[in-house]
Fold this sequence. Notes:
single chain; mainly alpha; rod-shaped
Amino acid sequence: MLFRWMIAATAMTAWALSLGQETSSDAPVLALSQAVQMALSNNRPVNIARLDIVKSKWAVAQNKNQAIPHDIDLPFSPQAT
């Protein structure tokens, strides 16, 4: 929640500072959603947190896989005679 508030405050501050500046024709005009998306994609701590989430999901999948017994003789398996 605090993170979203900080992004909103940063975006509003940047918007307020840009009001006093003249826009040049070669500068791209960004919508607020584009600016927030660009800020999130270039934010190193956010990218690290996303990678940690992916890493955790893989760890959970690995632990689930280890919990499943793999050495079962089923009547229809090629090992069973």
